[in-house]
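pinging the channel bc i need a second pair of eyes. not urgent but kinda urgent?? the chain im working w is below, pasted from the shared doc
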Amino acid sequence: MATSAEMDRMYRRQRYIYDLTRKYYLLGRDRLLREMEVAPGERVLEIGCGTARNLIRLAQWRPEARCYGLDASNEMLVTAAAKVKAAGLESRIVLRQEMAEQLDYARTFGLAGPFDTAFFSYSLSMIPTWREAIEAALANLKPRAALYVVDFWDQGEWPDWFRTMLKGWLDLFHVQFRPELLEYLQEMAKQGRGSLELQAVAGRYAYLAKFRKAA
């Protein structure tokens, strides 16, 4: 299991160029933010929020939302806090350092009740304990609330050379496509734990999943 210290070592320098480099290959993030169902006053949590790029956009596009961000790396959260302050959104975005699988809405954020929505944006492919992270996310959501995931798929409609090149590039950052992750979500739906909707992004470059928790 990756520790917070290990995540800090990974991102100590990467955090300065993270947004600049990732915008070219983390496709579907803005689509997720636009399609996310958020009612006025609802609490939205991003697990693995990194530099808070997504939370800042969400807060700007959905001024009625109350936004929360969780990340294992304190180094990334230093950058996130600076970006949130620069955007003038300190009163709308709350950031906390915590491992994804250890999330607890009361202990971590001091909240009296669970979240209305949660999402992972290209973070599950970097979390070794991704099963535990999903379970923690669901445990911290209200009944009938939605968990969203956007992450790498199998690039099924892309040529072989592109898939090989992408895999090599992602390996440099300890990122990988996990087919078992989708299988896990599908199995949870079969077990009646919720319903699953799946959309392809850019020819199966990535997928956008919406898992609505059962009542």
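so The CA atoms of residues 147 and 172 lie 28 Å apart. and Residues 15-21 have pLDDT under 50 and may be disordered. — does that match what u expected or am i reading it wrong
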